[in-house]
Amino acid sequence: MQDDEALTAARALLQRAPVFDGHNDLPWVIRQDKAARGDVRAYDLTRVHERGDTDIPRLREGHVGAQFWAAFQPTSAPHPARTTLELIDVIHRIEAAHPDVFLPARGAADFERARRAGKIASYIVIEGGVGLENSLAPLRVWHAAGARMLIPCHNETLDWVDSATDAPRNGGFNAFGRAVIAEANRLGMIVDGAHLSHDAIRKLLDVSDAPILISHSNAFTLCDHPRNAPDDVLRRLKDNGGVVMATFVPGFVSQPLRDWLKRSRDGYGKAPLASDPKAQLAELEARQGPAPRATLAEVADHIDYLVKTAGVDHVGIGSDFFGGPQPQGLEHVGRFPYLFAELLKRGHSERDLAKISSRNVLRVMRKVEEIGEVLCEAREPAIGRLEDYPGP
Ligand SMILES: [Zn+2]
Fold first, then answer.
1. Residues in contact with 110: Cβ distance below 8 Å, sequence separation at least 6, in sequence order
2. β-strand 243-246 against 213-214: which pairing, if any?
3. Which of 70, 144, 305, 318 could make a disulfide contact with 245, Cβ separation 3.0–4.6 Å?
4. How many CA atoms lie less than 13 Å away from 242 in the CB half-sphere?
5. In angstroms, rounded to a whole number, what is the distance separating the alpha carbons of residues 37 and 17?
6. What is the mean pLDDT of the chain?
7. CA 3 to ligand 1 centroid distance, Å
8. How close is the Cα of 319 to the center of ligand 1, in Å?
């Protein structure tokens, strides 16, 4: 298949089965933007942001049909409970500022409603359970505010859950951490294994009543960053019914880049906090030569591997566009068709690619909702805080 032929076929495919992207940090980008400072209208999503990666024209160009927007904060941010609410509010304001573009999506059925209306389904994921401040109640408030997925932690281990990029303290999840999973299951909120230590994902698979997503992680075998999922976890997704969503974060894509970065990272793959990441990169390049660039083809390699190992029913896409560097060929949200064109050229069927673009993640969301309804009948809301759940 020729390049342009594949691209035309990919666009036609994504017209029918638009991309449900598992992760995008635009809300944080808008909050941190020096001019907009959290003002969605001032940021102006209707124009192309050449220096950014996400805006309405390019979401349209990329055939994005649904987006999990991250209500993300770094673990170290002050006032974590307040900050989570502020980020949820940014997403609500994105939806409110562009009602002709975004459909506030709170369940799997909203994907099809949005598609029929020619809109993008806007879903909320909480990235970082640090905002719970060790209490279960905020989880229900987040759900009431529309959040439908929880990433228990970010790059740091919390009092109840172990991060992929920090020292473990909880055997994956301790008793309170398991109560968070159970309450999310009851609410019909997806629990997301991205950012969890490998043992924490295994524990999540042991105890979750519902399928999971791993919303922005690749295959550990192809790139040995601890944020990527090991083979045993990938294989267990078959029984769990869950989905791993391939990500574009260059350091999780390319082993040569991962090796290049290793010298500047701690044992968990985490960079020391830099006040000026650009200057830090320039300094590294002065010492080590130019950084290898991750590529679209390497992302496709991960997808091939994930399909081979987890099965085609258990793979999706979670770009993690975050306003930073991206692989060559996948610089912004308008580039999804190029990835699908590459996958078509590699022999994936259109039927399989429709599963990867959106059908698999929708199946997970429907199942999580169904299980939540049953659990809501069966049990009362779990109340309490960390200290009410002693023991490992
Ligand atoms: Zn993340």
1. 103, 104, 121
2. parallel
3. 318
4. 28
5. 35
6. 96
7. 32
8. 10
